[in-house]
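[Q] Does anyone have a clean structure-token version of this?
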Amino acid sequence: MSGLALWPTALPGMLGLGLLAWAIATARRNAGLVDIFWSLFFLLAAAAYATAAPSAGPRALLVLVLVAVWSLRLSGYLAARNWNAAEDHRYRAIRARNEPGFAWKSLYLVFGLQAVLAWLISAPLAAAIASPAPFGPWDALGTALAGFGIAFETAADGQLARFKADAANAGGVMDRGLWRYTRHPNYFGEFCVWWGLGLLALGAGGWWSVFAPLLMTVLLLKVSGVALLEKDIGERRPAYRAYVARTNAFFPGPPRKV
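[A] Here you go.
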């Protein structure tokens, strides 16, 4: 079975997970809990592809391990941070725009949409898992890049968690560690993870799936990532403006003198 033929097999399960996430979030009146499930969509997809593939080889195991490490770490981090927190301002804004009846509308506006987006972006996983092709240079490069992205994102999240845990930093701007070189090191880590997985798919001959890391890049930079988070942050936190002036938005680089 080709990766393209394998790809649709994960969609029903991913929609089912979206429905479960919706039920939990609706019961807790916090649509932002969908963030906890985002990475789990991909773990479910990878497991579905590996189960449905007639002859999953070593590359399938490698992809499963990479996705599991990335997914479980990120989901656990977000669960610890968000489970008992107030609904994120991004989701409060969506809720306000779609009342009355947001509880039902969120089923497709938030949870269904994220399940479908995750399925689209999971295309490289299907391509890589389906192929019995031997390992090559693209696989080595993809594994290294994905591993680097997981480590980079994990370090950034840990640094931010420690910063927020210190009461002396209340209202301050995190500009230390990796956050000194990019305003969104966690998103840059995600970028590396998905381009690494894309290279693994390329090594398996899955050139058709290159749209997925491209789509993830657009989401990170222009839709739900950098652009959305920074839309009004300068108004809510004036100190952030100086941080923007001296620090790269996405790709790491030395701080600028201002």
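[Q] Thanks! Anything notable?
[A] The longest helix spans residues 137-165.
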